[in-house]
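Handout, page 2. Input:
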Amino acid sequence: MEQPFNIELDFPAFASTECSSDEISSISKVFGDHVPVLDMKKTASDDLLVVLPSAKDVTDVQLDIEEIKKCPGRGLIICAAAPPESGFDFFSRFFCPKYGVNEDPVCGSAHCALAHYWSKKMEKSDFIAFAASSRSGM
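Output:
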């Protein structure tokens, strides 16, 4: 049986900016009335970063890939703060169907923006994050 292992990578932190009205409108079409959006940013790598109310929302939400393709930018990152008992700081998922990746199992470039975003919210710089794709990763 193969033993699990961890790899630590050193990536830059990508700042994010406020979204335009077109970007906000496109996200409302992706989520509809299913899950409220708490915050939304545009990342330096041209992704939309959307904060949901809970880690359960991140893991459970089923998104329409065709609607994501219509969004401006490269891809869509969804995230939420992790429950304290989980041992993680935040949960996330990354979708990039315009480039043939409906859902990236564990996306390094998404975490460049996520680390920057959550460092401002949590006032810390070291994280243990959970990529909540079907393959998952930490």
